[in-house]
Amino acid sequence: MTDLFTYQENVARADIAKEAGIASADRNAWPEWKREAMNALEWVASMRPAFTSQDVFIRMDSLNMDRPHEPSAMGSIFRHAAKIGMIVKTGRHVPSQLAQCHRDVVEWKLA
Q1: pLDDT digits (tens, 9 = 90+) for 42-85
Q2: What pTM was estimated for this model as a whole?
Q3: What is the CATH number of domain 4-110?
Q4: Backbone angles phi, psi at 14, to 5 degrees
Q5: Which residues contact 16 (CB under 8 A, 6 or more apart)?
Q6: Taking the domains of the chain in order of start, what are their residue ranges?
């Protein structure tokens, strides 16, 4: 069994790796893609009472917009929107809409 100290260290390392991954994806995302993603996020947020990053990808796909090289770049878009007070987490994790994603995803709403 993992003791509490080891567990906390593992969680901290995982969080650092997650942050580094999102930052790297953001640095490598095209500026045009970032603008399109933010516009798609704003549209989805205005149309739905609650939504996920997958809803934004679906919206972008419907408009034939390019996807980033690294899908985690969408994390930086959501973080920016939250930082400027546009969206907030609902506190729920909902089932993924995508067959290739086997985990629940964070749900958001307009602030």
Answers
A1: 999 999 999 999 999 999 999 999 888 788 899 999 999 999 99
A2: 0.81
A3: 1.10.10
A4: -65, -40
A5: none
A6: 4-110
